[in-house]
Design goal:
The chain is mainly α. The protein contains 10 helices and no strands.
């Protein structure tokens, strides 16, 4: 993930594949489920959705087999995000919502900001703008409450996109969110 964030997607994909190969060799289910996230995320970020979905299928099947609700929720959420990115917004709203419910029922609260802005994108793409803004508000509140700010630049970028997609199309609001997003990314020295 560090290589991706530093702007080296090909090296990130290679490292994710290497980590997955090593996890398979040790034949430990919990390690494999954890490690599957790296090729899922890296392939998603690189737009390799078929490869990401193949890894998601494996993660969800293994999580169901081993009774690992947290990892199953992770797979459902990642599948929902890919549905969002591939223009299947209505299905994505349902999938991401289901994933969030599974995630919370497993007792987890980490990554709430990311989950909320994923759901916001799906709602906006389904022309459900009130719901999208509600999710953005929840994402921003979660970042404030938990200090989990690693995705703050992306949450602001998403809010800017929603401001442009909304029927009221508020370019000033969008520009403010985009400006905040760029300032945060520059402060973090983001390269991806």
């Amino acid at each position: 993930m560090a290589l991706w964030l530093l702007g080296y997607p090909d090296a990130a994909l290679q490292d994710a594949d290497c980590a997955l190969m090593e996890a398979r060799q040790i034949e430990h289910a919990a390690t494999l489920m954890f490690t599957l996230n790296f090729p899922i995320l890296t392939n998603t970020y690189c737009g390799n959705y078929d490869a990401a979905n193949d890894h998601i299928d494996e993660l969800v099947a293994l999580a169901e087999e081993k009774g690992a609700p947290f990892r199953k929720a992770e797979g459902v959420l990642r599948r929902g995000y890919i549905l969002t990115l591939t223009g299947k917004a209505a299905t994505a709203v349902e999938m991401v919502s289901t994933g969030i419910d599974l995630w919370r029922s497993a007792g987890s609260t980490i990554f709430t900001p990311e989950q909320e802005f994923m759901l916001a994108i799906a709602h906006a793409d389904s022309d459900q703008f009130d719901e999208a803004w509600d999710c953005i508000g929840k994402a921003m509140a979660a970042m404030q409450a938990t200090g989990e700010r690693w995705c703050e630049a992306e949450a602001n970028r998403v809010a800017g996109e929603i401001a442009l997609k909304s029927p009221e199309r508020d370019t000033a609001k969008a520009q403010a969110y985009f400006g905040r997003s760029l300032a945060l990314a520059r402060a973090q020295q983001a390269k991806s």
